[in-house]
Design goal:
Elements (H helix, E strand, L loop, with lengths): L2 E9 L5 E10 L2 H19 L8 H8 L3 H15 E7 L2 H7 L3 E3 L3 H4 L4
Parallel strand pairs: 2-4
Antiparallel strand pairs: 1-2, 1-3
């Protein structure tokens, strides 16, 4: 049976850390954490090549390496910027994040006293 989790994602440094939150369904907390990581990766890729985050082609040009090596460097750099989290849904957890960029598509379920 799937449960509700609040996942969060963002980038460290001047990007401000975890700034986006969403309620999702997942089988287990590990699955929710993977989804949060995927969202953080997508967020990173939006800025790749700008704001000090190098793209694979930037790395190839700067480091003089092939695409395979540049991809490895890119993935290491990306990991160092990612911030993400997953916690089981609770009203208390929701209170902590609801004033960020927050989306709860299960509001109809979570507004009901359980």
């Amino acid at each position: 049976m799937e449960k509700l989790y609040i996942i969060g994602w963002g980038l460290s440094g001047g990007f401000g850390g975890v700034r986006y939150y969403e309620v999702i369904e997942a089988e287990a907390e590990d699955d929710a954490t993977i989804r949060a990581w995927e969202n953080a990766c997508e967020y990173y890729e939006m800025y790749s090549g700008s704001n000090g985050l190098r793209s694979v082609s930037d790395i190839m040009g700067e480091e003089g390496c092939d695409e395979e090596e540049a991809t490895g460097i890119y993935e290491e750099e990306r990991e160092s910027w990612l911030e993400y989290s997953a916690v089981p849904y609770s009203k208390e957890a929701e209170e902590k994040v609801k004033y960020y960029h927050y989306n709860n598509p299960f509001k109809h379920l979570t507004d009901v006293d359980q």
